[in-house]
Amino acid sequence: MIRISTLPNGLRVLSESIPHVRSATVGVWCDVGSAAEPAERRGISHLLEHMVFKGTRRRTARAIAEEMDAVGGELNAMTDKETTCFYAHVIDRHLPRAVDILADLLQNALFAADDLARERQVVLEEIKMYDDSPGEVVHDRFARTLWRGANLGDPTIGYAHTVTGIERDDLLAWRATRYAPTTVFLTAAGNLDHDVLVALAADAFGSFSGHAQGSTPERPRFTPGLDVTIDDTEQAYVLLGTPGLSMRDDRRYAFSVLDTILGGGMSSRLFQTVREQRALAYEIGTFQQGYREAGLFGVTAGCTPERAQECVDVVVDELDRLLQDGVRSDEVERAREHLKGNLTLALEGTFNRMSRLARNELVHGRQISTEEVEEAFDAVDDAAVDALARELLVPSQRGLCVLGPAEVRGVQLPGVAAA
After folding, report:
1. Domains parsed from the chain with CATH numbers
2. Catalytic residues, which ones?
3. Above 70 in pLDDT, residue 419?
């Protein structure tokens, strides 16, 4: 049910038909994110994402909002460190309107100076909002500490001083050099006909032209480090990190199994030890930050500041125990089924299916079926998981970020000095 076409101007159109739903989600994706930005313009991709909604040659900002609200649809966008996406979720019969609006935003945004002055202030308020969120702050410091000096370590939203310095000419130049049929493509999923979608895209993007260079994925070096931030919070926010895998690494399936065993649910080792047995935290889990050529792995917990060191020690003990004793076959089997179940549930929505088309295109250059993914999970065995753990989780490749009140000042990670 997945089809791919290329328009005469080079724009690719990918779709997945899902006849049993009554909606469709369409996204316009660009191969650019904050990791491709010059340091002095950090946040320009995110600011451009905001600005396209402020008016085009055909529509005012109010008209854009009213036209989508009038059909009960959702119009939004998202920027991350490697990609930008503008998308709409609508009832299937309103797909032509969604494609037309998205094409108009991308090609015809005015970037008016007065609108920019206002929206720049909105983004500065957004930065302040994140700065007031301890969880966001510690995650930002986590990436910057372990990927010291890397573009991937900086926040996608940018910094107040970089956003303030972005002018209209900067946005126009960024769009001209980064947005073209060679770096932009369209994906859609839902109750749709591929040939009709291609015709809509050909009409909406018929004058879209030019050539842009795709982003070169960054490969930052992992640097073990300790970062402790003192802030007036009720809890201590603890992130212990190690190297991860890139999204292109063939071992990513085994790594997801390892992630699940350690912190991927209520039966995971860390949940059972940190929360159920020791009552050290309400929230405890693991996460992966995966990009095209790099990745990080982390353990995250929130605990009483006075018990932050105990929490770190228990997490370290669990990692060391896994390295020494290895994983059990029943854990691997349970993790494999957990991951396959999550995949099936996630793909029940048209947004996730639309996004999956795009991620496969960007990361792998081909579509990977759910059957192939499930077979890859089924092929993961104990030895593969243990081998990854020995490579990535060793004590010499660990870093720690902690944020909390004065009581966390002395928290340590064995063998790691302050960054």
Report:
1. 2-204 (3.30.830.10), 226-408 (3.30.830.10)
2. 49
3. no
